[in-house]
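forwarding from the other thread:

> can someone predict this with adenosine monophosphate?

sure thing
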Amino acid sequence: MCGVIGVFGHKEAAKIAFFGLYALQHRGQESAGIVSSDGKVVKEHRDLGLVAEVFNEPILQNLTGHIAVGHVRYSTTGSSTVKNVQPFLVTHSRQTFALAHNGNLVNACLLREELEKQGSLFQTTMDSEIIVHLIAKSLQKGLVEAIRETMAIIEGAYSIVLLAQDKLIAFRDPHGFRPLALGMLNGGYIVASETCAFDLVQAQYLRDVKPGEILVIDENGINSYEGIKKENLAQCIFEFIYFARPDSNIFGENVYSFRKRLGYELARECPLETDFVMPFPDSGNYAAIGYAQATGLPFEMGVIRNHYVGRTFIQPSQSMRDFSVRVKLNPVKELLRGKKVAVVDDSLVRGTTSRTRVRAIREAGAFEINMLISCPPIKYPCYYGIDFPSRGELIAAKHSVDEIRRYLELDLLHYLSLEGLLKAAQGNNKGFCLACFTGKYPVPIKASIHKEIFEIKETK
Ligand code: AMP
Protein backbone atom coordinates (compact mmCIF):
# COMPACT_ATOMS: atom_id res chain seq x y z
CA MET A 1 0.00 0.00 0.00
CA CYS A 2 1.96 2.92 -1.32
CA GLY A 3 1.72 5.76 -3.77
CA VAL A 4 4.38 6.79 -6.27
CA ILE A 5 4.90 9.83 -8.47
CA GLY A 6 7.47 10.87 -11.06
CA VAL A 7 7.83 14.25 -12.79
CA PHE A 8 10.00 15.17 -15.77
CA GLY A 9 10.44 18.53 -17.48
CA HIS A 10 9.00 20.99 -14.99
CA LYS A 11 11.15 23.72 -13.42
CA GLU A 12 9.59 23.02 -10.02
CA ALA A 13 9.42 19.24 -10.34
CA ALA A 14 9.64 18.65 -6.57
CA LYS A 15 6.70 20.95 -5.92
CA ILE A 16 4.61 19.10 -8.49
CA ALA A 17 5.63 15.82 -6.85
CA PHE A 18 4.62 17.28 -3.47
CA PHE A 19 1.13 18.18 -4.73
CA GLY A 20 0.85 14.78 -6.36
CA LEU A 21 1.78 13.04 -3.12
CA TYR A 22 -0.80 15.13 -1.31
CA ALA A 23 -3.45 13.68 -3.64
CA LEU A 24 -2.04 10.18 -3.09
CA GLN A 25 -1.91 10.47 0.71
CA HIS A 26 -4.69 7.86 1.11
CA ARG A 27 -2.26 5.25 -0.29
CA GLY A 28 0.12 5.57 2.66
CA GLN A 29 0.29 7.71 5.76
CA GLU A 30 3.43 6.38 7.40
CA SER A 31 6.14 8.27 5.56
CA ALA A 32 6.79 10.51 2.58
CA GLY A 33 9.82 11.37 0.46
CA ILE A 34 10.92 13.24 -2.65
CA VAL A 35 14.21 13.05 -4.57
CA SER A 36 14.90 15.71 -7.22
CA SER A 37 17.58 16.22 -9.85
CA ASP A 38 18.68 18.85 -12.36
CA GLY A 39 20.42 16.14 -14.34
CA LYS A 40 23.62 16.46 -12.31
CA VAL A 41 22.95 17.33 -8.68
CA VAL A 42 20.55 15.08 -6.80
CA LYS A 43 18.72 16.24 -3.64
CA GLU A 44 16.49 14.37 -1.25
CA HIS A 45 14.15 14.81 1.66
CA ARG A 46 12.37 11.95 3.38
CA ASP A 47 10.79 11.43 6.78
CA LEU A 48 8.13 9.62 8.77
CA GLY A 49 4.77 11.41 8.81
CA LEU A 50 2.13 12.81 6.49
CA VAL A 51 3.09 14.71 3.33
CA ALA A 52 2.12 18.05 4.93
CA GLU A 53 4.22 17.25 8.01
CA VAL A 54 7.30 16.08 6.13
CA PHE A 55 7.54 19.00 3.66
CA ASN A 56 7.36 22.77 3.95
CA GLU A 57 8.22 25.66 1.63
CA PRO A 58 11.97 25.95 2.46
CA ILE A 59 12.44 22.19 2.12
CA LEU A 60 10.71 22.20 -1.27
CA GLN A 61 12.74 25.25 -2.40
CA ASN A 62 15.85 23.26 -1.73
CA LEU A 63 14.70 20.30 -3.85
CA THR A 64 15.82 21.88 -7.11
CA GLY A 65 15.73 20.43 -10.60
CA HIS A 66 13.38 19.49 -13.40
CA ILE A 67 13.09 15.82 -12.44
CA ALA A 68 11.58 14.39 -9.26
CA VAL A 69 10.28 11.15 -7.85
CA GLY A 70 8.17 10.81 -4.72
CA HIS A 71 6.63 8.19 -2.52
CA VAL A 72 4.08 7.80 0.26
CA ARG A 73 4.34 4.64 2.22
CA TYR A 74 2.28 2.30 4.29
CA SER A 75 4.63 -0.55 5.01
CA THR A 76 3.82 -4.06 3.87
CA THR A 77 7.43 -5.20 4.14
CA GLY A 78 10.15 -3.66 6.26
CA SER A 79 9.65 -1.85 9.55
CA SER A 80 8.74 1.81 10.01
CA THR A 81 12.07 3.52 10.45
CA VAL A 82 13.46 6.58 8.70
CA LYS A 83 15.93 4.30 6.91
CA ASN A 84 13.03 2.55 5.22
CA VAL A 85 11.46 5.75 3.90
CA GLN A 86 11.38 5.83 0.09
CA PRO A 87 12.45 6.91 -2.50
CA PHE A 88 15.42 4.65 -1.97
CA LEU A 89 18.57 6.55 -2.98
CA VAL A 90 21.87 4.99 -3.99
CA THR A 91 25.02 5.97 -5.90
CA HIS A 92 26.68 3.33 -8.02
CA SER A 93 29.53 3.81 -10.52
CA ARG A 94 29.14 7.59 -10.09
CA GLN A 95 25.48 7.43 -11.12
CA THR A 96 22.70 8.23 -8.67
CA PHE A 97 19.43 6.31 -8.62
CA ALA A 98 16.28 6.99 -6.63
CA LEU A 99 13.59 4.35 -6.71
CA ALA A 100 9.99 4.49 -5.50
CA HIS A 101 8.07 1.23 -5.46
CA ASN A 102 4.42 0.35 -5.01
CA GLY A 103 3.73 -3.36 -4.66
CA ASN A 104 5.33 -6.34 -3.08
CA LEU A 105 7.81 -8.91 -4.38
CA VAL A 106 7.01 -12.53 -3.57
CA ASN A 107 10.57 -13.80 -4.01
CA ALA A 108 12.26 -11.00 -2.06
CA CYS A 109 13.61 -13.23 0.74
CA LEU A 110 15.26 -15.66 -1.67
CA LEU A 111 16.76 -12.87 -3.78
CA ARG A 112 18.09 -11.06 -0.74
CA GLU A 113 19.71 -14.21 0.58
CA GLU A 114 21.38 -14.82 -2.79
CA LEU A 115 22.59 -11.24 -3.09
CA GLU A 116 23.95 -11.27 0.46
CA LYS A 117 25.86 -14.47 -0.31
CA GLN A 118 27.43 -12.64 -3.25
CA GLY A 119 28.50 -9.83 -0.93
CA SER A 120 25.70 -7.28 -1.26
CA LEU A 121 25.27 -5.04 1.78
CA PHE A 122 21.70 -3.95 2.48
CA GLN A 123 20.90 -0.65 4.20
CA THR A 124 17.20 -1.26 4.71
CA THR A 125 14.74 -4.09 5.18
CA MET A 126 12.66 -3.11 2.14
CA ASP A 127 12.20 -5.43 -0.81
CA SER A 128 12.57 -2.36 -3.03
CA GLU A 129 16.29 -2.23 -2.22
CA ILE A 130 16.73 -5.62 -3.88
CA ILE A 131 15.51 -4.10 -7.15
CA VAL A 132 18.17 -1.38 -6.99
CA HIS A 133 20.89 -3.98 -6.30
CA LEU A 134 19.80 -6.07 -9.24
CA ILE A 135 19.72 -3.08 -11.60
CA ALA A 136 23.19 -2.00 -10.43
CA LYS A 137 24.60 -5.47 -11.10
CA SER A 138 23.76 -5.32 -14.82
CA LEU A 139 24.33 -1.63 -15.36
CA GLN A 140 27.31 -2.04 -17.70
CA LYS A 141 24.83 -3.44 -20.27
CA GLY A 142 22.89 -0.14 -20.25
CA LEU A 143 20.02 0.99 -18.09
CA VAL A 144 17.14 -0.46 -20.11
CA GLU A 145 18.86 -3.85 -20.39
CA ALA A 146 19.64 -3.78 -16.64
CA ILE A 147 15.97 -3.16 -15.85
CA ARG A 148 14.97 -5.91 -18.31
CA GLU A 149 17.25 -8.40 -16.59
CA THR A 150 15.89 -7.30 -13.21
CA MET A 151 12.29 -7.75 -14.37
CA ALA A 152 13.15 -11.28 -15.44
CA ILE A 153 14.29 -12.08 -11.88
CA ILE A 154 11.86 -10.29 -9.59
CA GLU A 155 8.41 -11.81 -9.08
CA GLY A 156 5.24 -10.24 -7.78
CA ALA A 157 3.76 -6.77 -7.87
CA TYR A 158 5.68 -3.67 -8.82
CA SER A 159 4.76 -0.28 -10.20
CA ILE A 160 8.00 1.66 -10.07
CA VAL A 161 9.33 5.13 -10.81
CA LEU A 162 13.08 5.52 -11.00
CA LEU A 163 15.12 8.69 -11.20
CA ALA A 164 18.41 7.88 -12.92
CA GLN A 165 20.36 11.17 -12.82
CA ASP A 166 18.99 12.85 -15.99
CA LYS A 167 16.17 10.40 -16.76
CA LEU A 168 12.82 9.43 -15.36
CA ILE A 169 11.96 5.78 -15.82
CA ALA A 170 8.72 3.95 -15.08
CA PHE A 171 8.13 0.22 -15.22
CA ARG A 172 5.38 -2.14 -14.22
CA ASP A 173 5.20 -5.89 -13.56
CA PRO A 174 3.89 -8.13 -16.37
CA HIS A 175 0.60 -8.85 -14.56
CA GLY A 176 -0.19 -5.18 -13.87
CA PHE A 177 -1.15 -5.75 -10.23
CA ARG A 178 -0.89 -2.10 -9.14
CA PRO A 179 -1.98 0.90 -11.21
CA LEU A 180 0.44 3.35 -12.85
CA ALA A 181 -0.67 6.16 -15.15
CA LEU A 182 1.21 8.47 -17.51
CA GLY A 183 0.24 12.10 -18.06
CA MET A 184 1.36 15.23 -19.83
CA LEU A 185 2.30 18.32 -17.86
CA ASN A 186 2.97 21.55 -19.76
CA GLY A 187 5.18 19.78 -22.27
CA GLY A 188 6.72 17.65 -19.53
CA TYR A 189 5.58 14.28 -18.21
CA ILE A 190 4.12 12.91 -15.02
CA VAL A 191 3.70 9.31 -13.85
CA ALA A 192 1.54 8.48 -10.83
CA SER A 193 -0.24 5.64 -9.05
CA GLU A 194 -3.61 7.31 -9.61
CA THR A 195 -4.97 9.99 -11.90
CA CYS A 196 -6.26 12.07 -8.95
CA ALA A 197 -2.63 13.22 -8.68
CA PHE A 198 -2.85 14.60 -12.25
CA ASP A 199 -6.00 16.60 -11.59
CA LEU A 200 -4.40 18.53 -8.75
CA VAL A 201 -1.54 19.77 -10.94
CA GLN A 202 -3.70 20.09 -14.08
CA ALA A 203 -1.87 17.38 -15.98
CA GLN A 204 -3.61 15.48 -18.79
CA TYR A 205 -3.91 11.73 -18.63
CA LEU A 206 -2.28 10.07 -21.65
CA ARG A 207 -2.45 6.36 -20.90
CA ASP A 208 -1.49 3.70 -18.35
CA VAL A 209 2.07 2.40 -18.20
CA LYS A 210 1.51 -1.04 -19.73
CA PRO A 211 2.13 -4.25 -17.81
CA GLY A 212 5.70 -5.36 -18.59
CA GLU A 213 6.60 -1.99 -20.14
CA ILE A 214 9.63 0.20 -19.45
CA LEU A 215 9.14 3.91 -20.17
CA VAL A 216 12.21 6.11 -20.42
CA ILE A 217 11.64 9.86 -20.30
CA ASP A 218 14.54 12.24 -20.95
CA GLU A 219 15.55 15.32 -22.97
CA ASN A 220 14.76 13.39 -26.16
CA GLY A 221 11.18 12.72 -25.14
CA ILE A 222 9.53 9.47 -24.21
CA ASN A 223 10.54 5.97 -25.31
CA SER A 224 8.77 2.72 -24.65
CA TYR A 225 10.52 -0.68 -24.39
CA GLU A 226 9.25 -4.15 -23.74
CA GLY A 227 10.75 -5.01 -20.36
CA ILE A 228 9.24 -8.43 -20.02
CA LYS A 229 6.52 -10.22 -21.96
CA LYS A 230 3.09 -9.24 -20.73
CA GLU A 231 1.42 -12.11 -18.84
CA ASN A 232 -2.19 -12.77 -17.85
CA LEU A 233 -3.51 -9.54 -16.40
CA ALA A 234 -4.00 -9.64 -12.62
CA GLN A 235 -5.08 -6.12 -11.74
CA CYS A 236 -5.92 -5.79 -8.05
CA ILE A 237 -9.70 -5.62 -7.75
CA PHE A 238 -9.37 -4.35 -4.18
CA GLU A 239 -8.00 -1.10 -5.63
CA PHE A 240 -11.50 -0.60 -7.06
CA ILE A 241 -13.37 -1.90 -4.01
CA TYR A 242 -11.55 0.14 -1.38
CA PHE A 243 -8.06 1.39 -1.91
CA ALA A 244 -8.01 3.88 -4.78
CA ARG A 245 -9.73 7.25 -4.64
CA PRO A 246 -13.17 7.43 -6.27
CA ASP A 247 -12.13 10.44 -8.36
CA SER A 248 -9.29 8.42 -9.92
CA ASN A 249 -9.33 6.35 -13.06
CA ILE A 250 -7.31 3.19 -12.65
CA PHE A 251 -6.88 0.28 -15.06
CA GLY A 252 -8.76 2.39 -17.63
CA GLU A 253 -11.89 2.83 -15.52
CA ASN A 254 -13.37 5.34 -13.06
CA VAL A 255 -13.38 4.09 -9.47
CA TYR A 256 -16.57 5.95 -8.43
CA SER A 257 -18.62 4.38 -11.25
CA PHE A 258 -17.23 0.93 -10.47
CA ARG A 259 -18.22 1.25 -6.80
CA LYS A 260 -21.71 2.42 -7.70
CA ARG A 261 -22.14 -0.66 -9.87
CA LEU A 262 -21.15 -2.78 -6.86
CA GLY A 263 -24.17 -1.19 -5.15
CA TYR A 264 -26.43 -2.03 -8.10
CA GLU A 265 -25.31 -5.66 -7.91
CA LEU A 266 -25.92 -5.74 -4.15
CA ALA A 267 -29.46 -4.47 -4.82
CA ARG A 268 -30.01 -7.22 -7.39
CA GLU A 269 -28.77 -9.92 -5.01
CA CYS A 270 -30.31 -8.65 -1.79
CA PRO A 271 -33.14 -6.12 -2.16
CA LEU A 272 -34.36 -4.98 1.26
CA GLU A 273 -37.28 -3.00 2.57
CA THR A 274 -35.78 -0.65 5.10
CA ASP A 275 -36.44 2.94 6.17
CA PHE A 276 -33.23 4.03 4.48
CA VAL A 277 -29.78 3.07 3.20
CA MET A 278 -26.68 4.42 4.95
CA PRO A 279 -22.97 3.89 4.34
CA PHE A 280 -20.16 3.54 6.79
CA PRO A 281 -18.29 6.56 5.42
CA ASP A 282 -16.21 7.08 3.44
CA SER A 283 -15.44 3.59 2.21
CA GLY A 284 -19.11 2.55 1.90
CA ASN A 285 -20.43 5.79 0.34
CA TYR A 286 -20.38 4.91 -3.34
CA ALA A 287 -21.80 1.38 -3.17
CA ALA A 288 -24.49 2.78 -0.83
CA ILE A 289 -25.42 5.42 -3.43
CA GLY A 290 -25.67 2.66 -6.06
CA TYR A 291 -27.78 0.50 -3.73
CA ALA A 292 -30.13 3.40 -2.91
CA GLN A 293 -30.53 4.34 -6.58
CA ALA A 294 -31.24 0.75 -7.62
CA THR A 295 -33.76 0.06 -4.83
CA GLY A 296 -35.33 3.51 -4.69
CA LEU A 297 -34.78 3.65 -0.92
CA PRO A 298 -33.83 7.00 0.68
CA PHE A 299 -30.13 7.58 1.27
CA GLU A 300 -29.09 9.00 4.64
CA MET A 301 -25.84 9.62 6.46
CA GLY A 302 -26.64 7.74 9.67
CA VAL A 303 -23.14 8.22 11.04
CA ILE A 304 -20.96 11.29 10.72
CA ARG A 305 -17.29 11.08 10.14
CA ASN A 306 -14.69 13.13 11.96
CA HIS A 307 -12.22 13.93 9.21
CA TYR A 308 -9.34 14.68 11.52
CA VAL A 309 -8.64 11.04 12.32
CA GLY A 310 -6.52 8.82 10.07
CA ARG A 311 -7.55 5.45 8.72
CA THR A 312 -8.33 3.22 11.68
CA PHE A 313 -6.32 0.18 10.69
CA ILE A 314 -3.18 2.30 10.63
CA GLN A 315 -3.25 2.32 14.43
CA PRO A 316 -0.95 -0.38 15.69
CA SER A 317 -2.53 -1.56 18.96
CA GLN A 318 -6.04 -2.93 19.47
CA SER A 319 -6.97 -0.43 22.21
CA MET A 320 -5.91 2.49 20.03
CA ARG A 321 -7.89 1.02 17.15
CA ASP A 322 -11.09 0.80 19.25
CA PHE A 323 -10.71 4.40 20.36
CA SER A 324 -10.14 5.67 16.87
CA VAL A 325 -13.16 3.79 15.54
CA ARG A 326 -15.39 5.60 18.04
CA VAL A 327 -13.82 8.98 17.58
CA LYS A 328 -14.03 8.63 13.81
CA LEU A 329 -17.72 7.82 13.31
CA ASN A 330 -20.59 9.12 15.44
CA PRO A 331 -24.24 8.04 14.96
CA VAL A 332 -27.01 10.58 14.34
CA LYS A 333 -29.37 9.43 17.08
CA GLU A 334 -32.38 11.43 15.85
CA LEU A 335 -32.16 9.73 12.47
CA LEU A 336 -31.60 6.19 13.71
CA ARG A 337 -34.07 5.91 16.58
CA GLY A 338 -36.62 3.17 15.90
CA LYS A 339 -35.46 2.65 12.31
CA LYS A 340 -34.83 -0.35 10.08
CA VAL A 341 -31.58 0.35 8.25
CA ALA A 342 -29.49 -1.09 5.43
CA VAL A 343 -25.85 -0.32 6.15
CA VAL A 344 -23.37 -0.57 3.29
CA ASP A 345 -19.62 -0.96 3.65
CA ASP A 346 -16.91 -1.95 1.20
CA SER A 347 -15.36 -4.88 3.05
CA LEU A 348 -14.89 -6.78 6.28
CA VAL A 349 -11.31 -7.55 7.23
CA ARG A 350 -10.92 -8.38 10.92
CA GLY A 351 -14.51 -7.48 11.77
CA THR A 352 -13.44 -5.46 14.80
CA THR A 353 -14.18 -1.94 13.55
CA SER A 354 -17.51 -3.03 12.07
CA ARG A 355 -18.55 -4.62 15.36
CA THR A 356 -17.95 -1.37 17.26
CA ARG A 357 -19.77 0.65 14.58
CA VAL A 358 -22.79 -1.68 14.53
CA ARG A 359 -23.00 -1.53 18.32
CA ALA A 360 -22.90 2.25 18.19
CA ILE A 361 -25.85 2.49 15.80
CA ARG A 362 -27.77 -0.10 17.84
CA GLU A 363 -27.16 1.99 20.99
CA ALA A 364 -28.33 5.04 19.05
CA GLY A 365 -31.72 3.32 18.67
CA ALA A 366 -31.63 1.53 15.27
CA PHE A 367 -34.12 -1.28 15.64
CA GLU A 368 -33.13 -3.54 12.72
CA ILE A 369 -29.63 -3.49 11.24
CA ASN A 370 -28.94 -5.18 7.91
CA MET A 371 -25.43 -5.04 6.54
CA LEU A 372 -24.38 -5.27 2.91
CA ILE A 373 -20.75 -5.70 1.97
CA SER A 374 -19.72 -4.70 -1.55
CA CYS A 375 -17.24 -7.57 -2.03
CA PRO A 376 -17.10 -11.30 -1.25
CA PRO A 377 -15.62 -12.63 2.03
CA ILE A 378 -11.87 -11.92 2.25
CA LYS A 379 -10.37 -15.28 3.17
CA TYR A 380 -6.78 -15.10 1.99
CA PRO A 381 -3.97 -12.63 2.68
CA CYS A 382 -2.56 -10.43 -0.07
CA TYR A 383 1.08 -10.90 -1.03
CA TYR A 384 1.03 -8.26 -3.73
CA GLY A 385 0.90 -5.11 -1.66
CA ILE A 386 -2.43 -4.76 0.17
CA ASP A 387 -1.96 -4.92 3.90
CA PHE A 388 -4.38 -7.62 4.94
CA PRO A 389 -3.58 -9.35 8.20
CA SER A 390 -2.49 -12.97 8.34
CA ARG A 391 -5.03 -15.64 7.52
CA GLY A 392 -5.70 -16.22 11.21
CA GLU A 393 -6.87 -12.64 11.70
CA LEU A 394 -9.13 -12.47 8.64
CA ILE A 395 -12.59 -13.03 10.06
CA ALA A 396 -13.95 -14.75 6.95
CA ALA A 397 -11.04 -17.22 6.84
CA LYS A 398 -12.29 -19.01 9.92
CA HIS A 399 -15.98 -18.19 10.20
CA SER A 400 -19.13 -18.72 8.17
CA VAL A 401 -21.26 -15.75 7.07
CA ASP A 402 -23.79 -16.60 9.76
CA GLU A 403 -21.11 -16.75 12.46
CA ILE A 404 -19.86 -13.35 11.33
CA ARG A 405 -23.43 -11.98 11.36
CA ARG A 406 -23.79 -13.11 14.97
CA TYR A 407 -20.39 -11.73 15.97
CA LEU A 408 -21.32 -8.35 14.47
CA GLU A 409 -24.75 -8.52 16.18
CA LEU A 410 -26.60 -7.98 12.89
CA ASP A 411 -30.09 -8.94 11.81
CA LEU A 412 -28.83 -9.73 8.31
CA LEU A 413 -25.43 -9.85 6.62
CA HIS A 414 -24.99 -10.16 2.88
CA TYR A 415 -21.68 -10.23 1.01
CA LEU A 416 -21.66 -9.47 -2.71
CA SER A 417 -21.02 -12.72 -4.59
CA LEU A 418 -17.95 -13.22 -6.77
CA GLU A 419 -20.29 -13.34 -9.78
CA GLY A 420 -21.84 -10.04 -8.71
CA LEU A 421 -18.41 -8.50 -8.33
CA LEU A 422 -17.37 -9.63 -11.80
CA LYS A 423 -20.64 -8.42 -13.26
CA ALA A 424 -19.93 -4.98 -11.81
CA ALA A 425 -16.57 -5.21 -13.57
CA GLN A 426 -18.55 -5.33 -16.84
CA GLY A 427 -16.65 -7.67 -19.07
CA ASN A 428 -13.37 -6.36 -17.79
CA ASN A 429 -13.48 -9.47 -15.64
CA LYS A 430 -10.68 -11.57 -17.07
CA GLY A 431 -7.95 -9.31 -15.92
CA PHE A 432 -8.32 -9.19 -12.16
CA CYS A 433 -6.43 -10.66 -9.25
CA LEU A 434 -9.09 -12.19 -7.00
CA ALA A 435 -6.68 -14.07 -4.74
CA CYS A 436 -8.00 -12.53 -1.49
CA PHE A 437 -11.39 -14.11 -2.22
CA THR A 438 -10.39 -17.32 -4.01
CA GLY A 439 -6.88 -18.19 -2.76
CA LYS A 440 -5.79 -18.55 -6.40
CA TYR A 441 -2.57 -16.58 -6.49
CA PRO A 442 -1.60 -15.47 -10.03
CA VAL A 443 2.10 -15.44 -9.12
CA PRO A 444 3.02 -18.44 -6.99
CA ILE A 445 3.92 -17.67 -3.39
CA LYS A 446 7.24 -19.07 -2.23
CA ALA A 447 7.29 -22.06 0.14
CA SER A 448 7.75 -20.30 3.49
CA ILE A 449 4.85 -17.91 2.92
CA HIS A 450 2.76 -20.63 1.31
CA LYS A 451 2.87 -22.69 4.50
CA GLU A 452 1.37 -19.87 6.52
CA ILE A 453 -1.51 -19.43 4.08
CA PHE A 454 -2.58 -23.00 3.86
CA GLU A 455 -1.92 -24.36 7.32
CA ILE A 456 -5.13 -22.84 8.74
CA LYS A 457 -7.90 -25.30 8.08
CA GLU A 458 -11.08 -23.94 6.56
CA THR A 459 -13.98 -24.35 8.91
CA LYS A 460 -16.57 -23.56 6.30
P1 AMP B 1 -13.09 -4.45 10.16
O1 AMP B 1 -14.51 -4.32 10.62
O2 AMP B 1 -12.13 -4.36 11.31
O3 AMP B 1 -12.90 -5.66 9.33
O4 AMP B 1 -12.76 -3.19 9.27
C1 AMP B 1 -13.41 -3.06 8.08
C2 AMP B 1 -13.12 -1.72 7.52
O5 AMP B 1 -11.71 -1.53 7.33
C3 AMP B 1 -13.80 -1.60 6.20
O6 AMP B 1 -14.58 -0.43 6.22
C4 AMP B 1 -12.67 -1.44 5.22
O7 AMP B 1 -12.94 -0.36 4.41
C5 AMP B 1 -11.43 -1.11 6.02
N1 AMP B 1 -10.23 -1.76 5.42
C6 AMP B 1 -9.96 -1.83 4.13
N2 AMP B 1 -8.77 -2.40 3.90
C7 AMP B 1 -8.27 -2.73 5.06
C8 AMP B 1 -7.07 -3.38 5.45
N3 AMP B 1 -6.16 -3.74 4.57
N4 AMP B 1 -6.89 -3.63 6.75
C9 AMP B 1 -7.83 -3.27 7.63
N5 AMP B 1 -8.97 -2.63 7.31
C10 AMP B 1 -9.21 -2.37 6.04
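The pocket of adenosine monophosphate is lined by residues 242, 280, 283, 313, 345-354, 386-388 (CB under 6 Å). thats all i got for now
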